[in-house]
Amino acid sequence: MKTNLLFGCSLGSLFLAGGCANADKAGTEEQPQPNVILIVADDLGYGDLSCYGATRVSTPHVDSLASSGLRFTDAHSVAATSTPSRYSLFTGQYSWRRNDTGIAAGNAGMVIRPEQTTLADVFKSAGYATGAIGKWHLGLGDKTGSQDWNGIITPGPQDLGFDYSYLMAATGDRVPCVWIENQRVANYDADAPIYVSYKTPFPGEPLGKDHPELLTKLKPYPNHGHNQAIVNGISRIGYMKGGGKALWKDENIADTIATKATDYIKAHKDSAFFLYVGTNDIHVPRYPHPRFQGKSGMGYRGDAILQFDWTVGEIVRTLKEEGIADHTLIILTSDNGPVVNDGYLDQAVELLGDHCPWGDLRGGKYSIFEAGTRVPFIVCWPEMIEPGVSHALVSHIDLVASMAGLTGGEQSENLGIDSQNYLDAFLGKDAKGRDYVIEAAQTLSVSDGEWKYITPCKYTPYYAITRTETGNSTEEQLYNLREDLGERKNLASQCPDKLKELQEILKQETKKGCVMR
Predict the structure, then answer these.
(1) So what's the pLDDT on residue 11?
(2) What is the 3-state secondary structure (H, E, C) of 315-379?
């Protein structure tokens, strides 16, 4: 907690913060603070879950969570890629206000700075135990390339409010391919010291582009960059030497995350806790455990969706076994939209069939169109939330302020400068939600839930490798999402008043500070 920023704790009562979604359930007595688990999938699309309409893949554990809580139809991440999306989620600040929140390399310095107030700080200041498990991708250490992979890596998650962390430094397709536990490499092998570079390969270390015979699990897509260091039969982005017994095996990543998460729940069942679980699924390289391989009929990508669903099931099962399920608020979402082919020859495209990871939306990961940032969002809290479907307009940006409202936690002057308290919307009491959401890819867009404006952009309108429409155009774009969810009919020239209204919103927001990459 950054105590120098505090001006006091404003909301000590749950009922003052957002009220009770069901007075009959809660009664009139003040309720103790709930546990909170935030599950963030990786590259999981709006149409990838059966509760969101998927028919070729079944996700019963996620579906059960949705049927017990609220399933949102108009929820948004701030950005269409991982690092900026997660930055905004954890800080309540739009990632586009800074010029250093792009997709982070595995040896990037920590993007969130220790002096910033984070979502974990909010919970910690309210007396919660705080944990982070799984994918991080927000950098570690002070500066790029400055990490001591063979000692203590500082600063790190502990400086951002997390008491405990067990994390990937970046993603599965980037080195270093080791787990970092409390800012030290887990299972460290002193006989195999770790060296990482994103500039120069290490002499004698084979690379995927030169030694395809060593790629026994997955081979990279040509000209996609995933052809450098080889770790456990898969080539990655970046160069790495050493690691030994600390190196992960991709087929065990989901099991590791699930085990660490359930162990954390068991260890903290008697006190309020906040747990962030960032899964590796559905991000590349997709190499699920053998018990899931071949089960979906859609190749490794479909199998990874089943594996993600299993992870959710393990978390919920543990909560029930420990007797704390009803008293735990679970938020399940994705960091951004889906991508099918993103670097490896895993037959995701060939076996997709009629499955639509993007649902009825246009675009996907990397795109300013809706499929880039409209994400699955499920909130379940049996004690407080009536099950149903919410069409409220909500955004990841508001988790910081809303959780401060829920817990009565830190209310600093710099607390999530773009974050607002929409706890009522998250709990199902407010059917409208936000007045507008702002989304970012290589350009910005703003949507009020009905109309969406996309700013002109000089970048490419189509990523050929990933087969993604980026939404970039040199023209003004305006769409009526109620009538044209697929964003096919540009009404910018026909609706000048609405165009001007949304342009003005962005103008006022960017006046507060904006640096686009």
Answers:
(1) 31
(2) HHHHHHHCCCCCCEEEEEEECCCCCCCCCECCCCCCCCCCCCCCCCCCCCCCCCCHHHHECCEEE
Nearby residues of 490 by Cβ (< 8 Å), 6 or more positions away: 475, 477, 478, 479
Ranges of residues in the chain whose predicted pLDDT is under 50: 1-29
Question: Nearest-CA neighbor of 285 among 332, 239, 348, 214?
Answer: 348
- Amino acid 31: pLDDT: 57
Whether the link from the prior residue into 282 is cis, omega within 30° of 0, is yes
Task: Give 253-316 as a DSSP string.
Answer: HHHHHHHHHHHHHHHTTTS-EEEEEE--TTSSS----TTTTTSSSSHHHHHHHHHHHHHHHHHH
CA distances from 373 to 291, 392, 396, 439, 503 (A): 31, 15, 10, 7, 19
pLDDT at position 25 is 34
* The pLDDT of residue 490: 98
- Region for 49 from its dihedrals, namely left if φ exceeds 0, alpha if ψ lies in -120 to 50, beta otherwise: beta
**Strand, helix or coil for residue 130:** strand
Q: Give the Cα separation of 432 and 77 in Å (integer).
A: 17
- The domains found in the chain, sorted by start residue, are 33-194+249-426 (3.40.720.10), 437-511 (3.30.1120.10)
Q: First vs last Cα of the chain: how many Å apart?
A: 30
pLDDT score at 513? 80
| pLDDT (tens digit per residue) in 4-45 | 332 223 333 333 333 333 333 333 345 569 999 999 999 999
Whose structure tokens read 């940006």? 397
SS3 for 406? helix
Q: How far, CA to CA in Å, does 403 sit from each of 314, 331, 410, 416, 453?
A: 24, 11, 10, 11, 29
Q: 427 with 72: CB under 8 angstroms?
A: no
pLDDT in tens, 264-285: 999 999 999 999 999 999 999 9
| Block residue for tokens 């900026």 | 84
Residue 206: is the preceding peptide bond cis (ω within 30°)?
Answer: no
Q: Which of 320, 317, 338, 471 is nearest to 52 (CA)?
A: 338
Q: Compute the 3-state secondary structure of the chain and give helix, strand, coil in percent, each to the nearest 5.
A: 25, 20, 55
By three-state DSSP, how is residue 385 classified?
coil
Backbone φ and ψ of 344, nearest 5°: -135, 150
Residue 65: closest CA among 49, 47, 53: 49
What does the buried/exposed string (b/e) look like for 444-481 if buried means 16 or more CB atoms within 10 Å of the residue's CB?
Answer: bbbbbbebbbbbebeeeeebeebebbbbbbeebbbbbb
Tell me the β-bridge partners of 40. Answer: 278, 333
Our measurement of the distance from residue 64's CA atom to the centroid of its chain's CA atoms, rounded to an integer in Å, reads 21
Looking up tokens 């060939």 gives 350
pTM, to two decimals:
0.94
Q: Of 94, 469, 129, which Cα lies nearest the Cα of 276?
A: 129
Q: Is there a contact between 21 and 423 (Cβ–Cβ < 8 Å)?
A: no
- Residue 62: which H helix or E strand, with range? helix 60-68
